[in-house]
Specification:
Length: 748
Amino acid sequence: MTSNLNFDDLAQKSSASNATSEDHERLFAAVFSLSEWYFIDAGETPRCWLYPEMFGEQPAVAVFTEAERARLYAAEKGLNFYNGDSILSVSTANILDYIEQLIPKGCFKIFFNPNYGSHSFHHDLKMMRPIYEHLESKGLLTKTADVSENQSPELFQNPSTVTLIVQIKDGLGFPSGFVHPSASTQHLYCRVPSGWIDGEQLKPAYLEKIYAQLYGADWRMGNSDGSKYHILDSYTKIFPPETVITTKFGGTVNDSQNQFYFYIGDKYDHIRKVTAEQFQADIDAEMPKTEPNQLDQLVAENADDIAQFDQENTLLSSIMAGSAAAMDDADEEGKEQIIANTADMFNSLRVENKMSPKLFKVYIESCLNERKLLMPMLAFAFLQQDKAKWQKLEQDDEFVKDYADWMIKKMVPAAEILMDEPEPVEPLAKEPEKTVESSSQTPTNQFDELSRKAFSTNAMEDLNALFGEVYELENWLFIARGEMPNLNPYIAANPDFADGQQMIRAFTDSERLQRFARENNLTGEDGSALVLTIPTANIVEYLEQFIPYGVHGIWFNSDTESEGFFIPLKQLRPIKEHLANKKADNLANFGVSETANGDFEQNLRINAVGNIKLEASIRPFHAAIVPLLQNYQGTGDFVTLLRYDPSGISELVEGTEENSHGIYLQMRRFFYLNPNNNKRLGINNIHSRNLRHIQTNASLTVSLELCKMMDEPHVALFYHCFEGPGEIVNKLQAAIQPILESLNYESA
């Protein structure tokens, strides 16, 4: 805040030869009436300087009545603000306590406005309190606007600390009006007194202090070249105590997309920049020495569910106890065998809880240790009590991934559709054309019904129905923010939804969009919001660009009257592919595929074997089929035509073929000893990788096998299989037909 008082005039009058005591009183009364004093930051405390020509060897703290004077002084001293030097502002609400902490550190003087161009003045530091009390007794102190004026005195004596994060998306504006967005998101972790908080947000004055720490005290005035920083989006989240306890802030590493900063505020309204390790140390110093027993807390919070689970599984628990008893006298190998046998015995439970075999084995081991069948979450909680065992498990990358995936499915609605392989689909008892109805026929309120049902049952069929309708929309609608041509969708967080993470708000129809805009004061003067319309065909690529900026997901229909639902941005593409594959597979059940123009064609399957010249090579076949497969993407395992006993394979050479969509073919060459007749074969083969058309997702299989008998009689056989849309199957067959004819191919 810039003072309206002319401190140069006041200081000059107080230092004149004819100055009176009233001149001195007016000067220091003006100083103490400021809302803030400005200092040069030296870490935890203001910087003290030596002024030998004035104070000899007695250090003095430099204080400034305006931020501009502090900035000028820093420039004079050649300070680099981006290397830790900064201007800090401190509220005068408790300024005496703040500056008196410097006295035991050897600071004797206080020097006001020592920058060139200012009329400076000074005093003994220890005399500032008597001066203040003198002015107060005469009623000469009148406070100007103070960010801390509403705080109680008790708060300064023992302020509670709040830990929060301010996430900023910024840009650099230029005189032309163009704002270039930053490529990175700024993550500002802060620990501040509770008096800085209003509800779930920082008070504006304190948020401005944090901005000043990041960009410099006069950042709103712009840079010398005319550029100026702009806050494009800002989000604040207060961490609950349990999150602060469990989060490790030390060791944070910046990258091109994320920049991390750490700040600590104190009771004097001063905020200082610290390292991540210093930030963590401040938390550790405040935390109780004994950590809460998280297992006891889990048991207490889920006591009713655990009791019901125990009652329903009494018999299974007795079986588990019997297996556990057998472990008492077993050696390590015997215990491993008992765990494996028990896991096999309870395999239906593994399927029910959707655990991988490795994860389920660890779960069973925990149950055996406790001699009863445990709720899965409780079983892993028991296991984590054995720190050495758990640390060993965490070194197993496969286990860590399986456990993380399983936990996500337990905690995140609809996670299964985002992560699992598509389930087998039964043939539909109706014509294929009816399986691809346009969602333009879907009533707007049907999305409420679909959402309500999907998240009440969490059934794959219901989730497919909901997300299928979303992706069948012609466009997705967003509230536009910014100005043409730089429009972006409205992004906001809700502390009660998705753990308070930033979400793009999307809408299935304009009625819901306008209602949300009215509810949240996002309308223009005409009472309506500007709509940003993005075609669904391009939606994934458009929205994925927001992931590096820390946006978590897309929240559909978040107005108060709708049944909203969300999709993590990282899962938009897997969901789209899942739905496209499901649609293509449904059509395949009828023996048809969709074409690029939306029509349907019959699927064909060619599976043939024939005799061929011994000198045949598979290379011409490879050259013939590759140009026809450029619009196909490999999506899974390689589909082999013939099976070979691995023990009979020798001198194996493998390679893969890539197109612009990734790996899609596998080529192999090896010798094979047939275990059925002990005959040696030379094998050359080409297999596709569960091919899907990039536009229609129609499935295609391509397999070629060239088998040459190495022993008498010397013969060669050629197997080939093409299966998929009729047009491409016919083209593939036509492409290799001249090669087959040139090699005297005869069907076997």
